[in-house]
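Here comes my example:
=====
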Amino acid sequence: MPVTKLLLVSANQYAEPSPVYPLGISYLEAYLKEKSPELDIQLFDFNVSSHADFAEQLQKYKPDYVGISLRNIDDVNIYRQESFIGHYSAIIQTIRTYGRSTIIIGGPGYSIYPRLLFEHLKPDFAVYGEGEECLWSLLKALENKTGYAAIEGLVYTKNNTTQVNDKKRYCPDPKVCFDAKLLDFYWKQGGMLNIQTKRGCPYQCVYCTYPLIEGATVRTLDAATVADTLADLYFNQNIDYVFFTDSVFNINNAYNLELAERIISKKMNLKWGGYFNFANIDEKLLRILQQAGLAHIEFGTDSLCDATLKNYNKPFTVADIFETSKLCNRLKIDCAHFLILGGYGETEDTLNETFENSKKIERTVFFPFVGMRIYPGTKLHARAVQENKISKDDNLLKPAYYLSDFVDPALLKKKAKKTGRPWIFPDEDMSGQMQRLRSRGKKGPLWEYVLG
């Protein structure tokens, strides 16, 4: 009996500020190998290889199925507004040209636009949200020639109409397996390896797509498995710096403390960072996490003005930001603040307050986004339509931004410079400096070298 061949493709080519390991297809590979060990699975990564390489692999491997993970729709940069849809269309066209594979698309970028992208890219099937169980169920149904109409999270065509099945259940115990070739590339080029400990986000930030992509229910991955994976990377792959890609790391601190204790017990000299907010954090937690290797934090701060934080629907205040920033500095944990300037409800006064308050935070760097990328299904989308910022018929595949009428974007850099603090705007190219540091063997995020 012929072996079923599956090619899993990471379509992402965006590598700013650094290339990011394709976790999505790695979780899929691990799940499918456990559930269906008879499957023959190969990987392809567009950050590592070219379209010509892809065509060659298709011709040599002749996969029965090609699963494509779409990480981003665009660069979320108001200065450039680069869309990736054309690149994704070209991938599908290449598959159609060089074989008869069944094409299945998914990934976080796709999951924001499940119906629209299905009809635009025209794959055979698609999976939105978590992909493990849905993809496995689909492959099993197609191989056994049984019905797939009831599979949760599946998108398909029936009677020339797009069907989008509801999704109610989540993968109970996702695991990841890292590809040795890809590990080498991302460790050298990115200086960190990314891994996940949680899925889902309970917060309701006005602009955010995480609840749409992963759901609002938080699911923690098995702490022992995560710690074992880290130990394998550290002791067997010589990787000693990782980044936790959870939407917010400090959501479930009982879990975080268990994970920290397991990491400490492994006796690794591991360093790591993650995305944090200020709503669920204290000195006791940070000290234990630091013992487990916490070296840097990227805060989703968004604003340094209480009125704007309220408009953005953030669950913390400026006082919380000041207190936690001082604590991080006292503990010598490097931290950066990611801000959104000119978003919903921003005024010249609130913006000036943010710049003024930035002077009160020592030893940090600020990464501002200008305006808010509008995505369908978010609260920002409804408000942008209400304020006539966009048409209600705009499908938002082409990047659209909410920029407050009371903010002049041309003045932002001048205001930032006057604070005397390091600000790095999205149109400022830091790649040369980063490459020089990487060439000298520097690991970690690298923004710690410009802390002010």
